[in-house]
Amino acid sequence: MLHEDAAAALVDKGRNAFAQVLGSRGLGGLADLLLGAAGLAVAGRADCPVVVVRGAAAHRDGRFGNIVVGVEEGEGSGTALQFALREAHVRSCRLTAVHAWNPSSRVLTTAPAPSWYAMEAHRRPPSQVLDSALRGLAEPYRDARVSPMVIEGPARRALLDAASEADLLVVGARRRQGHPGLQLGLINHALLHHAPCPVAVVPQV
């Protein structure tokens, strides 16, 4: 029992944890879809992966035998992929690696300046981006059944659709430059609020 702010206490106690597990409390009706402020704060600031248990019972008892992980362009998905592969290995289930892309968004901005890796990612076909992200990471988990999936369209919609038959959705979260905590972004916010299954937010390292 700690007499302090819930989010601050959980972030502090989770500094050396493998993961933190939180519930998703709704207030009935559409509010059942939404994650509370404390849960969102922990997911955005924790040093370890945060698993938010949400969705219907069908998505919490392992009946789908499937974990979904979002893979983005660039070097940022490695930690999330490792977490997802380990979970798939432990659960002896399939891993669906989803990379969503939109032709109109594959234009680099000048600020902040993109890394060489990000520039190369934008020049490659989407399927090659996904293959490169998976290459090497799956070696320690050769028994894992990985299904690559490239989807043209918004990442939010692609991941929510893929999670409709999943026991867990795994996404990465970038660290802010010069600021504590994580930068969840609009996509991760939407997934934490509306995913039909538990969501794991994994800090990038």
Question: What is the element layout, followed by pairings?
Answer:
Blueprint: H1 6-13, E1 20-23, H2 37-45, E2 50-53, E3 66-70, H3 78-91, E4 94-101, H4 116-123, H5 126-134, E5 145-152, H6 155-162, E6 168-175, E7 182-183, H7 185-194, E8 199-203
Parallel strand pairs: 1-2, 3-4, 3-6, 4-5, 6-8
Antiparallel strand pairs: 2-8, 6-7
Helix pairs in contact: 1-2, 6-7
What does it look like?
The protein is of the alpha/beta class and 205 residues long. The protein is built from seven helices and eight strands. It has helices at residues 6-13, 37-45, 78-91, 116-123, 126-134, 155-162, 185-194; strands at 20-23, 50-53, 66-70, 94-101, 145-152, 168-175, 182-183, 199-203. Strands 1, 2, 3, 4, 5, 6, 7 and 8 form an eight-stranded mixed beta sheet that branches. It is globular and about 50 Å long. 35% of the residues are buried.
Write a brief caption for the model.
The protein is 32% helix and 21% strand. The protein has seven helices and eight strands; from the N terminus they run H-E-H-E-E-H-E-H-H-E-H-E-E-H-E.
Give, in order, the helices and strands: HEHEEHEHHEHEEHE
Structural class from helices and strands? alpha/beta
| Mean of pLDDT | 81
Q: Fraction of residues in helices?
A: 25-40%
Low-confidence stretches: 27-33, 106-121
User: Helix segment count?
Assistant: 7
Strand-residue proportion: 15-25%
Number of strands: 8
The rounded Rg comes to: 17 Å
* Biggest sheet features: 8 strands, mixed
Anisotropy-based shape: globular
Distance between the termini: 31 Å
